[in-house]
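Entry type: protein chain
Record version: 2
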Amino acid sequence: MATMISNSGHDENGRYSGGAAGDQTGTEWQVIPWYNRPWNCVLRHPKASVRKLIAQLAKEAANNNKIGYDQNQRETFWEQLKKVGYYPSKITVKCEADCSAGVCAIVRATGYLLGDTKLQKHSGTYTGNMRAALKAAGFEVLTASKYLTSGDYLLTGDILLNDGAHTATVVSDGAKATSGGSASGGTSGGSAANGEQTYKVKAGDTLSKIAAAYGTTYQKLASYNGIANPNIINVGQIIKIPASGVTTYTVKKGDSLWAIAAAKLGNGTRYNEIKTMNGLTSDTIHAGQVLKIPAK
C-alpha cells in the first residue's frame, strides 16, 4: 500500500496564485500517494504524539474544501486556524495557504494544542528556512537516501522538504517504517490524540530516569499515575506521560466545562479542547471528576 502524503500544490487553475479562495476542485490541497519531488530531507519530530497530531491536522486541512491554494493569500489559512482553536476541520470561512504556509501553520497549531512553546514559536515561513527553523524547534533532519527516494521508511507526521521548491506532510506509515524508542530516546508504548504518551517500564528503570527522558519530574509522574511510592515501579508497568503543559482539575459542584475553560484557559470557548483531551462524548461532568486541562 502506498505511503500517503498531505500535499498543497496549486490553485484550481493549476497555477500558484490568482484563483478564488477555497478549494474549488478538491485537488488544491489533497491526500495523495508519496512521489519523488525530489526531496532534500525529511524533518521528523522525536515524539510520536507530535507526529500523530501533525498528520491529523494535515489530513483535516486536505479534506476541508474551505481551504485552498494561493501564494498571494497564504496567511489567511493561519488566521482562520487560530479563530477555530487550531483544528482545520472546523474552518468554515474560505481561505488559502501554500505548501510551506500550510505546513508551518500546522506545526504551530500542534504546538498550541500540545502546549509545546518551541513548536508554537518556530520561525519557519517558507521552504528555504524551514529546515533550520524546525530543527531548532526539536525536529531531526534525516538525509539518508532511504528516506528521500521512496516512502517506505517514512513515519506518519514526517515532513518532506525540498528546500527550494516544496514541502508536504506524511499521513501514513511506510511499509518498512519503524520508530523504536526507549526511556533515553523516545516512547516505548504508545500515544493518544490528546498528546498523552505511555511508557512501558523496563529492567533498570526508575521514575526519575523516565521523567528526565520526557522533560518532567518524578513527582508529576507519580501524581499523574496515582503512584503512592515513587520509588517503586515494576517491569512491564505502563506509565502515562502527560502532554507538555497539561495539568489536572477536580470538578466541583456547579462547575461546567465552559466555566472551567474560562477559569483555567482564559477562554470558555476552549471547552471542546478539555472534552477532547478527556475523551468526553457529552458536556456532562460531575463533582469529584478529575479532568486533564491542556496548556494555557
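Comment: The CA atoms of residues 80 and 91 lie 6 Å apart.
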